[in-house]
Amino acid sequence: MIPVFDTSCPVAGRSGEPVGAKLAAGTRPRIAIFSLTGCEGCSLAILELENELLDVLGAVDIVNFREGMSERDWNIDIGFVDGAVSTPHDEAQLRRLRECCKTLVAIGSCACLGGVNTLKNAQPQNEYRGYVYGEAARHFPTADARPLSAFVPIDHELPGCPLVREEFLRFVKCLLGGRPFRLPSYPVCVECKRRGNLCSYERGQICLGPLTRGGCDAICPSYGRACDGCRGVVSNEALKAFGRNMRTQYDVSLSDVLERLRLFGAFQESALP
Amino acid sequence: MLDGIISHQELLRRIDALRVERRLIGPVARVEPECMPPVRYFYQPVERADELALDFTYCVQSPKAVLLPPAEPLLRFDRESGKFRAGPVIDHTPTALIGVHPCDVHAIELLDAVFSNGNADGHYLARRRSLFIVAVDCPEPCTEGVFCRDMETHETDRGFDVILYRLDADRRYGVVFASDAGRAWLNPSLSSGGMRTPNSDDERTFIRYRQNKERAFEPRLPMPRRELPEMMARSYDSLLWEATAQRCYSCGSCNLACPTCYCFDIRDENELNGGGCRLREWDACMARDFALVAGGHNFRAKPGQRLRHRLYRKAAWIEAQTGLHGCVGCARCDRACTAKISIVEMLGQLAEEVQHAGTRP
């Protein structure tokens, strides 16, 4: 899960390091992109970087990418993984990827938070296996959906449903330039205000923007849709404040708040007021 | 004293004439069916004067973005043919900002001072020098919750090129000039009859207008503005900061909506070809990492410290630095806060605390 920082500051730690620290100088990084349980929309979003894709391809070697090519190679500098770990097979594959990739990057809400897959975690396993797989259920072992970081150390996380293409590109530029990469530490509201949007709350919507990590350029509120928190909670303080404000200022119950936060797995029990 | 009287039709004609040489930005009405009332006003570029809503209540965002864009390149660099080259990006686009209420005129005056004093900011000043400002006076408070009367920013006699006073219902404006450019723009000799010099009736109407205005704006704070710095000085250890910050998201919406908040962050954006730009973006002192420095220390790591800092800036420190209002009472921060934390209510509570402390033996 994306670390939720308390009152101290997230300067130290993995995501403050230069992205390309593990690369040998002067070599083209060998990149791979993998998918576990998810819609593979994040992999697809990378292919949608149409204007920049050729520049990126000119600077890296993509050696393994099911969504985009048929060759397979397992000597990998940087592996991007979308999808959550939702089956024993996912887990085994993820552990293999951790061994093959010098740097491992989780992309998208599923890989970073568990994503919509985690909706099944609140239901009895027999039940959902039954209605998903029917009589063949016994052939499909499954488990609670979890983010990648629940199983192996992850070097960087690029959340969002789907991942934010511009952020992915910024990450790749940092990677190639050997510069540090950091996710925004401010919520979506900052980008809404920079874009000059009318606040969703003025329209009477309950928006998760104030407690959701920015970086998406407030894309949902910009099109009139309140934020659903797909990039995860930005801080424990904001989460606690949200609980308090919903109860005291908006008369919204804690269970309703949690329901909203569960959609993308952004909810973290330990942090609630 | 008025300098002229102009009809609505003639005003629109003159604004359209401005469009020949300048881009026009002004309040535009947008229907928002889910809002109460179901209309909101936004500063937007327009092509024609009749797109403007000059009788607007308030614009959701302040006109700050016209002078200090949310994100702007300060310089660009490239490495073509192996050589590093860099050059500044300066925006001189001639612009007319039509429809600025007195509070926002005061706010622009503050931005001017901030970006001219000490190290003058060429990027800001280039835009400012290319900007023509037409202010529109408010006959009454634009909406509930504003406290411009307390901040003494509900009227203004400088910081614009022209100010318009809507004297009566058939949209006749009283005109006052504050610059030669303003005087040249509404020169009566260019008129097809819609612009004239004021007579004694007009002056009487203007006096009535100002008397009515004086009655319409009521103070909301329990103390005059000049006592705020003293009150703040006695409030540093108030429990209010921590208590109120329990609900604060540290989202910075109050900063970003504020017409006088000018803080920014600068970072470099690199392109894959080795070029790139240095970008300046709005920053917010309420955001958690605003006061984070190299080595990992954060001077204001707690939300309560950040809230206190912001109020001190608005009610005392900016004025101490510039002699100008740090807060113009527009209440955009109050409206922007989804946690419903109100600056004017906080000031009121602090005033009460200080008064109580004063009466204790």
Question: Care to describe what's here?
Answer:
- The complex is a heterodimer of chains A (273) and B (361).
- Chain A has helices spanning 41-47, 50-59, 88-100, 108-113, 125-133, 165-177, 188-195, 219-222, 236-249, 254-262; strands at residues 30-35, 61-65, 76-82, 101-107, 156-158.
- Chain A has 273 residues and is an alpha/beta fold.
- Chain A folds into two domains: 14-177, NADH:ubiquinone oxidoreductase-like, 20kDa subunit (Rossmann fold); 188-271, no CATH class.
- In chain A, helix 3 links the parallel strand 3 and strand 4 (101-107).
- Chain A is globular.
- The two termini of chain A are 20 Å apart.
- Chain B has two domains: 4-69 and 89-216, no CATH class; 225-359, no CATH class.
- In chain B, 34% of the residues lie in helices and 20% in strands.
- Chain B has 13 helices and twelve strands.
- In chain B, the strands form two sheets. Chain B has an eight-stranded mixed sheet with strand order 3-2-6-7-8-9-1-10. A four-stranded antiparallel sheet of chain B has the order 5-4-12-11, with no helix packed on it.
- The relative contact order of chain B is 0.15.
- The interface between A and B is large, with 45 and 45 residues.
